Amino acid sequence: MTQNYEQLLRISIQEVMSGDLPSNGDASTDDQAGNHTQATFTTPEKTHTQDEFPVRSTLAESALTPSAEIAETLAKVEDRQAVDDSSQLSPCETKQLDKLLVSAPYPAATSIDALKVIQKQRGWVSDASLSLLSAYIQVSVAELDSVATFYNLIFRQAVGEVVLHPCDGISCDLMDGVEVRAAISQKLHIKPGETTPDNRFTLIPLPCLGACDKAPVMIASEQVYPHLTLSKIAQLLDELEGNKK
Ligand code: FES
To answer: In this predicted structure, what is the pLDDT of residue 149?
Structure first.
């Protein structure tokens, strides 16, 4: 009996070592007397090497956390934005920049006008556009960025097709400017600094627009709209909405 048990154990160990185990975890053998003996044992978990499951292993190693996923998504969006934002200046842009460079005493003197050229063509000035401009007019990115962020009519973030600049200066506020701005927000369902979901309007109030005698005032699409009233605002927004490209 002892011999049979040892024999059975030896066979089982050999099968475990070779990995050649029955799928149901059963093993059977015949003893020297011809008696059929069946043994049941638990299949040990096989340890897989990294090469066997390279993809799963890589994913496990990366162990993406929610914040890492967000960062990855943002990086993809930025990449996409960079691709969409053409990799070179257009002939139209370079032509206008050349004109500015010829007439300026030194390249940095063209900064604000050069930024306007870019914004006119692209709607706003992205980081990629800033780099292209910097390389072309030979003014550092930092210098251009400081100019762009100083002037509030140069947009460093994407804006809608029409940017509404109602004045929030004191003279306009005394002439119902607060109500006018509230009416714009209410009609478009956006707050200051926001863009409508259809990307049509962006609302950016600005301090005194220099037309206090015409208060309350708003600038939109390079037009000055004076003496605004609540009814004028509703009509004006309808007109601007109807002028979609
Ligand atoms: S305060 Fe609005 S134009 Fe001056």
So the answer is: 93
